[in-house]
Amino acid sequence: MGYQEVQTKLPSVLESLQQVKTFDGLQRLVEDLRELYGVEHLIYHSVNSAGTPYAALTYDLDWVDHYLEEDFGRIDPVVLGCYQRFQPVDWKDLDWTGKSARNFMLEARDAGVGNQGFSIPIRGPSGQFALFTVNHRCDDVEWAKFTTHNVRDFLLISHYINQKALEIERGTDMVEDQVLSPRELDALTMLGMGKSRANAADSLQISEHTLRVYIESARFKLGAANTTHAVALALTRGKIIV
Amino acid sequence: MIHFIYADALSDHPVLQRTMFTDRARQFSERLKWSVRVDDDGFERDEYDDMNPLYVIAEANGRHSGSMRFLPTTGPIMVNDHFSHLAGDVRISSPLIWECTRFCVAPDAPRTTSAALMLAAAELGRRAYLSHSVAVFDARMVRVYRRMGWAPDILGSDGTGRDRISVGLWAFDEAPVAALAAQAGVEPARASDWYRTSFQKPKAALAG
User: How far is A124 from chain B (nearest CA, A)?
Assistant: First the structure.
């Protein structure tokens, strides 16, 4: 599947994510995402501030049970390398040299876990931590190509899934309805009116960088795939009028 | 030499840890007179140091010569908690934007330190796929950044004289990597080595 195709699907993925209301729905969405990106597995795992775990994943359930029974989290290099951190990590850069890590890896392979992966640690509000992993089976060249094209998409998707999981857990729509500040609304309005970034920045008497950051911030709060999508969502939700 | 070290691994580098927090006390408390807390050990530490931030630390002669502190804007950050009035009242939050605070240079640091730190920050932005960094800094640092060829966009400033604090933005796609490396006195590829040494473990037969 080509990158362009996936790109144009991202807004619709995020739209379906917005519609998700339950953990079952989130699980189905993760399964759909796996199909869309054509990868072996996707895993979202969260530990909230009260220490309650939650996961939506495509691994074989026998493997998940075995993992939990054996408490593999203690030795899993992915968990050890990502816990309480926040930069994305390619599995190749983790420490797999220890005996227990190597044995764990062999068991994981037998259970259908692919040889490639990258994991995105997520730091949510008030000490919440989550981890999103893309797992695949391919050679290094193909993997490098895939990650280069898709990491930013997955950075967004993983954080939106996390927001959605928090929202479902709380049983409110607090996250979805994050308040946009007047500056963010101004920026979206200007772009919605068809102004260029340079023009919009000029009208608001801010630099283009500042405009970009306001748009980026608004995009994330709206759960949008890109700037155009953010403007569209702001319009349909009645947050801006042009 | 630049290190990327999360707070929970700082104790593996006791000298860097101690000298960074005491150098921060000298810069922010003694010299700039910011209203920061200095504890009984002479360490300048705040609540964000307890949130497992990622430090970028320059080392010279075995001790801290300069540093900066990064946190993701999806979690609690200083700009949103204390300085949003300087950022257009926008609560900045995105997986593509990290906050950088406590840019510190030791009094006896080599002249290349600031440029090396900026080069390391650019590398971090590239490796973490970031678009921007939002920073809180001593307003008088602006000319230093400008001289290095990577000036921030100032969102707002507060206070006067030594108290003056600014909130600004850096765009990672505009990082003048070659110029920063030249000023730091290293090859541009060196930043990649710093990152690898800090984060990448010995290769095992993962893909095979």
Answer: 5
**What is the value of pTM for the model shown?**
0.92
* A217 vs A126 pLDDT, higher one: A217
In chain A, residues 145-174 whose CB comes closer than 8 Å to chain B: 151-152, 155-156, 158-159
> What is this model's ipTM?
0.91
Domains in chain B and their CATH numbers? Answer: 2-199 (3.40.630.30)
Residue range B66-80: mean pLDDT, rounded: 96
Q: How many residues does chain B have?
A: 208
Report the SS3 class of residue A48. Answer: coil
How many angstroms separate the Cα of A109 from the Cα of each of A44, A66, A126, A138, A142? 19, 13, 35, 13, 19
Optimal mutation site among B49, B51, B56, B74, interface A, most CBs of chain A within 10 A: B74
3-state SS class at A136: strand
What's the average model confidence in pLDDT over A91-101? 92
Which domains are present in chain A? 3-170 (3.30.450.80), 182-236 (1.10.10.10)
* CB neighbours of residue A21 within 10 Å: 13
The size of the A-B interface in CB pairs under 8 A is 118
pLDDT reported for residue A107: 95
Which residue is closest to A105 within chain B, CA to CA? B206
Flag if B76 and A126 touch (Cβ within 8 Å): yes
Distance from CA of A92 to the nearest CA of B (A): 7
Chain B CB contacts of A216 under 8 Å are 94, 96-97, 131-132
Instruction: Work out the average pLDDT over A210-238.
Output: 91
> What mean pLDDT value characterizes chain A?
89
**Alpha-carbon gap, residue B106 to B158, rounded angstroms:** 24
Question: Predicted confidence band at B207 (pLDDT cuts at 50, 70, 90)?
Answer: very low
